[in-house]
Amino acid sequence: MTMVEQSQGLHEDAVDLGGRGSVSDYIALLKPRVMSLVVFTAAVGLVMAPGNQHPFLSFISILCIAIGGGASGALNMWWDADIDAVMSRTKKRPIPAGKITRAEAFAFGMVLSFGSVLTLGLVANWFAAALLAFTIFFYVVIYTMWLKRSTPQNIVIGGAAGALPPMVGWAAVTGDVSLVSIALFMITFTWTPPHFWALALVKNGDYQDAGVPMLPVVAGETATRHQIVLYSLLLLPVGMSPYLLGFATEVFGVGSAVLGLIFLGYAVRVWRIREGEPAKKAAMSLFKFSLFYLMLIFAGLLAENVMGLV
Amino acid sequence: MSKQKAVLSDEQVKARRGRSVALAVTLAVLVAMFYVITIVKLGPGIMDRPM
What we know:
- The structure holds 2 protein chains of 2 kinds.
- By secondary structure, chain A is mainly α.
- Chain A folds into 2 domains: 26-177, Tetracycline Repressor, domain 2, CATH 1.10.357.140; 180-301.
- Chain A has helices at 23-29, 32-48, 55-79, 81-86, 102-123, 126-147, 154-163, 165-174, 179-202, 204-210, 215-218, 221-244, 250-272, 276-306, and one strand spanning 5-7.
- The longest helix of chain A is centred in the C-terminal third of the chain and has 31 residues, at 276-306.
- Chain B is mainly alpha-helical.
- The mean pLDDT of chain B is 86.
- Chain B has a domain at 14-45.
- Strand 1 of chain A pairs antiparallel with strand 1 (3-5) of chain B.
């Protein structure tokens, strides 16, 4: 709201009228980098799903999932503005930077949430829409409002929200859940803890200052390193599951095994190097490789399906 | 009750103009999108309805 009438007698600074946010600030609220991951994984789920959906409807379905993911990001920033203001990684976000008010971010997030869910229901089916609504609910209410500030297992359980988009993409075509879509879910779900804990090791001070009970803050860095290795071990077979379950070729099987072993190698390096700057570098290397890993796994599945190899 | 108008800064005016353009473009895209969705979903059946 930019041009409002205020009752005389109220102090002008009493209410922040907002209206300073530019279009790019609103785009930043959508967490575009997270959105790109959502779009990519959802597209893979959609392409792998059996059935014929008109390409235009597929495009709109992906758009809805992307907007729904973005809306979750905006609502996350609405709720977490106090934490974001303390952490170096997030203090330049639109709300702590004073460009967008919390009320504006909330309204933006809610409008996009309802808009994306309703449109997906009309374009694809209401099961996919319900799954998208659940994804938004899970990320905003279960993860952001509840788990994030109350348990070091926050990102383990909360990771489910980030892992759901391929299932929504699959459901947009088929209207159901299957072993394949559950396998796609499990890949991102298992990948999330070592990915985030690697970052948490680097940004431990930030999380401590903000009072967020991330695993390194609560259980210590050593326990976090053990957990990273354990989850990386688990990720090896889970990453290969598309091949093991018979919906990817041997090439994918070998490729995912190699990628999983490299991932495990980076995790072991994080476990071994525990002091000073080299330890932070090792954690940052794992964090960067984890992004590369997920992208390649899903790109491999996408390529095999587009080329008709499976 | 007498009322007082808030005065916008240049920065706010510029930001509002940008948002207005973005909203207009979004609305136009939504109209076109729902038009095409209707055609695609109904196909030839779009003309086949009880009058």
